[in-house]
Amino acid sequence: MVSWWRPIPANGARLPAEVLTKTPLPGIQTQWSRLVTAESSDGPHAFHVLDTGPALQAQGITPTGTILAVHGNPTWSYLWRAVLEASVRVATPHNAWRVIAPDQLDMGFSDRLAHPEPPGPGAASYRRFGQRLDDLDGLAEALELDVDRPVVTLGHDWGGIISLAWATRHRNMVDAVVTLNTAVDHPSGDPVPAALQAAMAPGLLPSSTVLTNAFLRVTLGLADGGLAPEVAAAYRAPYVSRNGRGGIGGFVADIPASAHHASRAVLDESAAALREWDKPALLMWGPKDPVFRDQYLHDLLDRLPQADLHRFEGAGHLVAEDRDIAKVLFTWLSDTFTSAAATTAVSPPPADEISGLHDQLDQMALSWRRDSASVVQLADDQTTEVSWAELKSQVDSLASGFYELGMRHGDRVSLLVQPGNQLTAILYACLRLGAVAVVADAGLGLKGMTRAVRSAWPDWVIGEKTGLLVASTLGWPGKRISVNALSPRLVRLTGAQASVERLLRRGTSTTLETVPIPDPESAAAILFTSGSTGPAKGVVYTHRRLGALVALLRQTFAVSPGSSLIAGFAPFALLGPAIGATSVTPDMTVTKPATLTAEAVAEAAAAGDATMFFGSPAALSNVVATSGELSADQAEALQRIRLVLSAGAPVHPELLDKVQQLFPQAQLHTPYGMTEGLLQTDITRQQIHTAMETDQLGVCVGTAVEGVEFAVAPLNSLGRPAEALRDPDSAPGVLSEIVVSAAHLKAGYDRLWLTDRESRRDRHRGLLWHRTGDIGHFDPSGRLWVQGRLQHVMTTPAGPLGPGAVETRVDAIEEVARSAAVGVGPAGTQAVVVIIEPSPGKNLTVGSSPLALPELSRRVRDASVDAPVSAVLVVDSLPTDIRHNSKIDRTALASWANRILAGEKVPAP
Amino acid sequence: MTPPHIAEILPPSRILVTGASGLLGRSVAARLAELGYQVTTFQRSPSHLPGVRDVRGSLEDPQAVEAAVAGQHAIIHMAAKVSVSGRREDFEKVNILGTEQVFNAAWSAGVENIVHVSSPSVAHSGDSLIGAPAGPADPEHVVGHYAQTKAEAELIAEARGSVGINVLIMRPHLVWGPGDGQLTKRIIDRAKSGRLPLLGSGAPLVDTLYIDNAVDAFVAGLRRLPHIAALPIPERRLVVTNGEPRPIGELMMGIAEAGGARRPSLRVSPALAKAAGSVVEKIWAATGPHQDEPPMTKFLAEQLSTAHWFDQRHTRKVLDWTPTVSIDQGLLALTRHVRRTGRVL
Known about the structure:
heterodimer; A: alpha/beta; Rossmann fold; GMP Synthetase, Chain A, domain 3; eight-stranded mixed β-sheet; 33 helices; B: seven-stranded parallel β-sheet; Epimerase_deHydtase (chain B); NAD(P)-bd_dom_sf (chain B); NAD-dependent epimerase/dehydratase family protein (chain B)
C-alpha cells in the first residue's frame, strides 16, 4: 500500500438520468439508457449501456444487424450519440441497425472498481486489456446480441483496438469491423507519442489521470474548434470526482509501453490476428490527432488492405465530434450489407485504342527516331536534350535501381522534382515498376503539400535537395532518394538512401527482366486537386485510365509520335513519352505559370522544333504581356506553332485574340477539364466567337470530345443539384451540376471513401459517372456553358445563378481587369455582389471605401442584364489559387463581402 | 352594416384611409379613388384630393374616429406619429391609443377588413438585417419611442386580427420618391448644405421602396385581404420593399444627385456618429419642441451603418405583386420631377 494514496472505494453503476437530475445530457434520449449486469471473468458487473434496440422495436422495426460501439479513454458511450441518433433516424423496415454502446467497466456510468493502490503497470486492481475483452463477451450475452444477423464492431481510441481484438476473437460471429483513430501495434522500441509521455510518466500517472482531471481536460480540448460547453460538461459528468476517475488512470497504465508489460502478449496476439481478418472493414480517421498519428493508420491499412478509409482532413482525435461519422458509417453499412445497391456501371469506350504507358517509349527507342530528342529542357541559357534511346536507358536504369532499393509494385512515391527531363525519367521509372507517383505540386503551398503528402502516406520521397530538407523538417513519411548525389552531411540531414544521379551513372542491370509490366488496373498516379474549394483531394489514376487520356490526346489534337510540344502546363507535358511526342520544358518556374514569357516560349519552340504549345490562362496572359520583347527571330519561331492549347481555366476571348496575333499559324484550343478528368470538351477561338453571339450565360467551353458522355443534375431554388440525372438535350438551358462519364476519368479519390462514393453515385444509362461540382448549362447545339463551381452558386429569389453568368459580362467592361460575383444573405434570397479588380491605373472607388463609384456600378448593372446586381465593390487584386493563378477564391470573397455589406469594418480580402 | 361576402375587395367598395396627409397615405387614397373605390380620408388637415371624402379629426377623439369608420368596407390604417425624436407620451397617444380607437370603432361598426400599416423597425433592435424575414413585433427590445409604440400597435392589430377582423400587417421599408418629405427631401436638403452623413464605408446594404411600388403593394394588399386573412398571423406580416438591396452610400448619392445636389463626400465613423447621435438626441429633447428633426440621432446612425434588407419572396407571393419601378428607374423619375418642378415635394 502506498502511503499517500487514499484508496478508491467500489461503487455501483447508475443511470445518468438519476445522477444528473439538473443537467440533461444534450444529444441522448433517456430511453436509450439502461443498466445491464454481465458476467465477466471475475464475476458479475453492472454496466451502463446506451442501446437503440428498444427504440427501434417500439417503431416495429426488426434491426438488420447490430453495431457494438466501444469507447476509449477518457470518454464514455456519450461519444457515440450521433451514431445512436442516426440509427433511429435513418432506420427503415428493410435497413435498420441497433446500436449498443456500453460504458466500459470503471468508466462512464458503469460499476466503479475498488482501487487500494494507485494506477501503474503492475497495479492489479485495474482492468487489463484481456479482461476488457471478457467484459464484452459477458455483455454480448447479457444483451442477447442477435448473432443470426450481421454484427459490426465500432471503436475509438482504446475502444478501437479492444473492438478489433474482440472481433478477431469472434470471427464467426462478427461480420465487419469499423474503427476511428486507434493503434493496434506500437513497436516496443519506438517512443510513445509525446502527447502521452507526460501522462504516462510513472511519477505523474496517478496525478494527471486520477487525482486531477488533466488527462480528461486535455483530451476534450482536442476537438476541432472546441466542444460546446454543455457537451464538454456531459463528457466530464461521470468523471467529476477523483473516485470516479480510477478507470482513466487504469487505461493509461495499461498502455504496453515496454515489452514486459502485462497486456503486451494479448495485444501482440490481437494485432497479429488482425492480419487474418478478411471480412469488410471501414476506417474513419482524424489526421490532426497528436497521439494516433498517421503512422498508426498506415499500420492498420497494412493489416487490413481491404479496408475502406475515409480520412477527414482537418479533424482530430475526437473525430466523432468533429465530423459526421454516422453518415459515412450508415452509408457504408448499407452498401456492404444491402445487396440492392450493387449494380455495376461502366465507363464508355476510350477515344482510341489504349496502349501501355511505356509502349511508345520502347518503340521510339528502337525506331529510326531513336537519336532524336524525347525531352528538351531550357534553363539558365542552357538547353538539355535527351534522345529517345537515352531516355529509355535512363528509365530502365532508374527502374532497376529503385527496385534494388526495395521499391515495389503498389508503393507510393512522392515526387518533389520540378517538371523537366529528370522528372520525366523518374516518373516513367516508377510507372515501369508499378509504383504509384504522388504528385502534389508546390502550388498547394507548404501547408497544403504537407497535408497532401501525409494523406497519401508515400513509401518513398524522391526530391531535390531543398525538397528533401523540407520533407525532413516537416517529418514527411517515406524513404528518401535524392535527385543529385549529396555530400555526406546532406545525406545525413535528408536521410537519402540513394541518388538518381548515381543510379543513372551505374546504368541498367538485368534486374528489370524479372519485374512484370504492371497490370492496367493497378494505380499509376495520385494527382492532387488545386484545393481552391476545400482541402486538396488525391485523385487516383490507373494505368488504363492514363492510357485512355493518352489515346484521347492523340485522337483530339493529333499529337502523335514525332510531334513536339512546349510544356507550359505540366499534367499534359508528362504524357509526352507515352504519346511518343517530344516535350520541351521552357525556361520558367513551372509552378508559377505567370512567369512564362513570350521569349521563353520562342526559345523553346526553336530549340525543340516545337509545333504545339500547352499552357494555362495565366501563362498565356504573361506571354501576351511580354510579347513586345520578342526579337524578329523569336517572333518567327512562334510562327511555326500550329496548335496552342490552354487548360486549367477558361480564357477570355479577348486574350485569345491577342494570343492569335502572336501565333498566327496556330489553331487555338481551350479544352475544359479538371484534375479528375483532364479533358472533357474542346472549343477553338473561332467557335468561341460564334458561340458568344448567342449571348448565353457563362463561358462556352465547347462540345464533348470523343469518348466523353455528359449528363446534368438540375439545381433547385436553393442551388442543390437533383439526385436524378438527365440527358443534356432533355434540359437545354437549365442550370445544372455537370456530370461526366469517360474512360479517362479518375479511378477514384484516395482515402476519401464517402467523397468518392458520392462523386460516382449515379447509375444513369448504366454508366459510371463523376459529379464534377461544376455548374452550367447545355445549349440546343450541345455546347456546354460553364457558370462556375457548385459551392459558389448564388441563390437569388429569381433562382440559382453561377458566378460566371455575371462575371463574363462584367469582365468585358473596359476598366475591369477581372471580377468575381458572389451571393450574400440567406440561401434562396441572396443578393448578388460583384467584386472588381480594376485595370492597372484606374481608381474606381468612392474615397477609401471599397464601394465602386456610382458610374461603374451603373455600367456593371447594365452589363449584367439577366442578374440584378445589388452592390459593386472594388479591391486592388482578387485572391486566387497559386497553381493556376486563375481560380478566384470566391468563398473568401463572399465572406468578406458579407461582412462589409453588413456594415462591419474589415480589411480588404 | 356587414358587406356581402366577397373573395376580394374590389371597387366600388368603401375604403377609409387614415393618415392621408403623408405622401404614402395621400398617394394610396388618390390611387384607390382613381381605381373607383369610394375613399374617405381621416386626418386633421384637408387632403385636397379630388373625388375623396375627408373626415377631419384626431385619432385621440373617439367620436371623430367612429364617424370616419362608419359604413366602410375596409380601413387602411396608416396614421402614425413618425419621428426620431419627441416625448414618449405623444407617440403613445397616436400610435397605441389611436390604433385601439380605430379597431374599437371598426368592431362596433362591423368593419371586417383592416390593413394595418407598420414598420420593419418594430421587430429589430439595431443589429444587421440580412435577407431577414418579418419577425414578430418586439416592443421590449426595439429602440426608440416610434418603434416601441408602433410595435405595441402591431400587437394590438394582431390580437384583433385573430378574432373576427381580417387584418393584414404591412411594413413598408424606407419609402422614397418625388413628393417624399421624410427621407428624400432631407437627403437632398442636407446634401445641398453639406450635412449629409455618409458613414464609414457606405457599403451596408439597405432595402428601400419606391413610392409607386408602395402604392401598388397597398392596393394589392387591400384587394387580396380576404384571402390573406386565411393565413396564420405570422404569415400576415409583410415587409414590403423593392427587393433591390443597395449600398446605403450609393443610394444616398443617387438620391442627392437626383435632387440636384453635388455628390456628398462627408465621412463620419459609425461609432462617432452613434455617440454624436445620442448627444444630439438628448439636447434636442431638452430644448423643447422643434420644427425639424435633429441632424443626427443614434437610431439614424444605426440605420445608416448596418445592413437592413429583407426576404421578399413571401411578400410577393402573398400580395401577388412585384415592383414595376426599379430603383434606377425611380432615381430617373425623381431627377425629372426635380428638374421640372424645381423641388422635391
